[in-house]
């Protein structure tokens, strides 16, 4: 299958992009790898067809930013956090903020559907990723506005703590007063990391460094030695190749760093923190898609509704200009 995948990619001049959370069997074949911001930037520059191995919002963003190329995904796997930001609920929340006369800029984490990005774009807002969230939120606050941050309440609250501003979750007591008002969503994988896991590792290995993604809960983030997006964690690990560390983020990514960079890495969890959506894409799924493309019966071609595209692009482009 590996040889056939390579042969068909070459034959059809297709670029293969894979997020760091993809299985090794996919990641090893990819022409482009990265976190969500890096992949959005790299795929924007392409002139040839693309197969994107990741979750749906990533393929959709690639198509919106680069509408002239064909974008395929072996699996249209949906991120559970993106699913939490239901269009109707987001619209309701924005209506409530307006009714309360709150002067705000909506910022949606890129982990959201194209429709939600379009609602945000239409309301003067923009997207962010975990690597630029602080920069994007600062930009909004510097205009004297509040921020409505969605869907990830953890990322929103963690960014607020890093910046020394206040945060709340919409609907909670006195939520209107906070600088960053968060939608009530979270990542089902990063919620697995608990303060007791940090305690366990610190008791056992006093010198261990605790490294976490900002989608983890504020309670865990407060106890960490380093907090960063996927690419920032990778950079940190490369800079500390021998130090013992316990890492709180997705399993495939952490395991790869343990094998390739630092054998003294532990998973900061008592369960295996695999992202079910990222793991839906397998070598067999990639192979099947390429055979279908070769036989002229391509499927999972990413398309975004015309009425959604324009405003979603506004939200993405505003982020790209600031990144
Ligand atoms: P990155 O922006 O760090 O790639 O994160 C994407 C993601 O889905 C993390 O769970
Ligand atoms: Fe979505 Fe969480 Fe999976 Fe990232 S790890 S793709 S946020 S479910």
Verbal overview:
There is one protein chain. The protein has 323 residues and is α/β, with parallel strands linked by helices. The protein has three domains: 102 residues, NadA-like (Rossmann fold, 3-Layer(aba) Sandwich), CATH 3.40.50; 101 residues, 3-Layer(aba) Sandwich (Rossmann fold); 78 residues, NadA-like (Rossmann fold). The chain has 15 helices and 13 strands. The strands form three sheets. Strands 6-5-7-9-8 form a five-stranded parallel β-sheet, sandwiched between helices. The chain has a four-stranded parallel β-sheet with strand order 2-1-3-4, covered by helices on one side. Helix 13 links the parallel strand 12 and strand 13. The longest helix is centred in the last third of the chain and has 17 residues. The protein is globular and about 60 Å long. The structure holds 1,3-dihydroxyacetonephosphate and iron/sulfur cluster. The site of 1,3-dihydroxyacetonephosphate (13P) has 10 residues, from loops. 1,3-dihydroxyacetonephosphate binds next to loops. It catalyses: iminosuccinate + dihydroxyacetone phosphate = quinolinate + phosphate + 2 H2O + H(+). Catalyzes the condensation of iminoaspartate with dihydroxyacetone phosphate to form quinolinate. Pfam families: NadA. Its EC number is 2.5.1.72. This is Quinolinate synthase.
Ordered list of secondary-structure elements with their pairings:
Layout: H1 2-11, E1 15-19, H2 24-27, E2 32-34, H3 36-44, E3 50-53, H4 56-65, E4 71-72, H5 80-84, H6 87-99, E5 104-109, H7 114-122, E6 126-128, H8 133-141, E7 146-150, H9 153-163, E8 167-169, E9 180-182, H10 195-204, E10 209-212, H11 218-223, E11 226-227, H12 230-239, E12 245-248, H13 251-260, E13 265-267, H14 283-294, H15 306-322
Helix pairs in contact: 1-14, 3-4, 7-15, 8-9
The structure holds 1,3-dihydroxyacetonephosphate and iron/sulfur cluster.
Residues 35-36, 111, 129-131, 187, 215, 229-230 line the site of 1,3-dihydroxyacetonephosphate (13P).
Keywords: 4Fe-4S, Iron, Iron-sulfur, Metal-binding, Pyridine nucleotide biosynthesis, Transferase
Catalytic activity: iminosuccinate + dihydroxyacetone phosphate = quinolinate + phosphate + 2 H2O + H(+)
GO biological process, one term: 'de novo' NAD+ biosynthetic process from L-aspartate
């Amino acid at each position: 299958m590996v040889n056939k995948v390579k042969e068909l990619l070459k034959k059809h001049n297709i670029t293969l992009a894979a997020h760091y959370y993809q299985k090794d069997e996919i990641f090893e074949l990819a022409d482009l790898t990265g976190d969500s911001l890096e992949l959005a930037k790299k795929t924007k520059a392409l002139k040839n067809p693309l197969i994107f191995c990741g979750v749906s919002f990533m393929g959709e963003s690639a198509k919106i930013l680069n509408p002239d190329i064909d974008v395929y995904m072996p699996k249209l796997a949906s991120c559970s956090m993106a699913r939490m930001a239901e269009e109707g609920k987001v619209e309701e929340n924005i209506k409530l903020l307006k009714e309360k006369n709150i002067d705000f800029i909506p910022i949606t984490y890129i982990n959201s559907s194209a429709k939600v990005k379009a609602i945000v774009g239409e309301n003067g807002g923009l997207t962010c990723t975990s690597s630029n969230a602080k920069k994007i939120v600062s930009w909004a606050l510097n205009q004297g506005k509040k921020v409505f941050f969605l869907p990830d309440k953890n990322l929103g609250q963690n960014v607020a703590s890093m910046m020394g501003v206040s945060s709340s979750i919409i609907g909670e007591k006195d939520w209107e007063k906070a600088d960053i008002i968060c939608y009530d969503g979270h990542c089902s994988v990063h919620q697995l990391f608990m303060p007791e896991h940090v305690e366990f590792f610190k008791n056992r290995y006093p010198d261990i460094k605790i490294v976490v993604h900002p989608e983890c809960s504020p309670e865990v983030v407060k106890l960490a030695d380093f907090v960063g997006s996927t690419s920032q964690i990778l950079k940190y690990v490369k800079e500390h190749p021998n130090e013992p560390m316990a890492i709180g983020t997705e399993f495939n990514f952490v395991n790869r760093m343990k094998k390739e960079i630092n054998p003294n890495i532990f998973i900061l969890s008592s369960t295996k923190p695999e992202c079910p959506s990222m793991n839906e894409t397998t070598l067999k799924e990639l192979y099947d898609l390429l055979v279908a493309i070769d036989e002229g019966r391509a499927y999972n071609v990413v398309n975004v509704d015309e009425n959604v595209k324009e405003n979603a692009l506004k939200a993405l482009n505003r982020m790209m200009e600031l990144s």
